[in-house]
Write a structure and sequence with these properties.
The protein is mainly α and 310 residues long. The chain contains 13 helices and no strands.
């Protein structure tokens, strides 16, 4: 049974993270968006810190460099990403599948930012074309019409694009900072710091607990996002990161929209539009162009790892 362990974990992670977009959409009926994200990471941050204390010898960041990593993680990877995502998904025009497809652009944007901020890396002409296809995919999804550029659906989808951009930029800046920190420690403190920032943003937007409607559905959505998508999801992610590497684990972003679409259809009666499918195809093609060399070099290793031949 261990022969297909990595493949099973990969699909499980894609299913958990893909269906998280549906859980966000469902929970937004009962929570103000930013407060919802903040409470999610209150819970997830405490759980991840407990996990870091268990597996890391010193789970507390030390020195300016390590705290700089936490600052980037808190502001961009957690707070920036989730503020834009949760507000964007609060618009009825943004389905679970559409949000997941736009977020799947993040690995492509990460490569673009890496070429801009990391001096040893440069985009080739083909890589630039790949970035162009990814951005074209977002335009197809947003479908802006002349005279209607500020309508809710377009603005909301651009906010989700802002979430993907925030995550991509944060991923690159953490690589630029010359400091080392165990990933479990970085995630734990970034979650807690991001939750604190989101509570501040929530207050600034006038959100409060008075806007929360306590229902079974809302609590289930919060529990799923905190326990499954965050705590369990990152545990699986860390395990697969060690086994498969960063290039292969990026492919989760391209399987997750399938589960986002299925869960949105099953639980929220959402349909899959032609624009969503076309946008996904363009973004995925852009990813293949940008990462073509790394994928070509890693495919044999990935094949062996997924079937347990390593």
């Amino acid at each position: 049974m261990s022969r297909y362990r990595n493949l099973a974990l990969f699909l499980t992670l894609a299913a958990i993270w893909g269906s998280a977009f549906m859980a966000i959409k469902a929970g937004l009926d009962y929570f103000p968006p930013v407060l919802f994200a903040a409470i999610r990471y209150d819970v997830a941050g405490v759980l991840m810190l407990a996990y870091a204390a268990w597996v890391v010898e010193d789970p507390i960041p030390r020195g300016r460099g390590q705290w700089a990593l936490v600052a980037v993680g808190s502001t961009l990877l957690i707070a920036g990403y989730h503020v834009f995502l949760f507000i964007g998904e609060s618009d009825p025009a943004v389905t679970s599948a559409a949000a997941a497809v736009i977020v799947s652009l993040s690995p492509v944007l990460t490569t673009g930012f890496a070429r801009a901020f990391l001096p040893d890396e440069r985009l080739t002409a083909v890589g630039i074309v790949g970035l162009g296809f990814g951005l074209l995919g977002v335009i197809v999804l947003a479908r802006p019409e002349p005279g209607a550029l500020l309508t809710g659906g377009v603005v909301a989808k651009l906010l989700v694009f802002g979430a993907a951009t925030s995550f991509a930029l944060g991923s690159v800046l953490t690589r630029r900072i010359e400091a080392q920190l165990p990933i479990e420690t970085l995630e734990a403190w970034s979650m807690l710091g991001g939750a604190l920032l989101m509570h501040a943003v929530s207050l600034g937007l006038g959100e409060s607990l008075a806007g929360v409607t306590v229902t079974v559905e809302g609590m289930l959505a919060l529990a799923y996002l905190s326990l499954a998508a965050s705590a369990l999801g990152f545990l699986i992610y860390f395990d697969l990161l060690d086994r498969l590497g960063a290039v292969e684990i990026n492919l989760v972003s391209y399987v997750a929209p399938i589960f986002a679409a299925l869960s949105g259809w099953l639980f929220l009666d959402e349909g899959l539009s032609v624009a969503t499918a076309a946008g996904f195809a363009l973004i995925f093609f852009g990813f293949l162009l940008v990462k073509r060399r790394a994928i070509r070099g890693e495919l044999p290793r990935l094949r062996r790892a997924l079937v347990g031949e390593d």
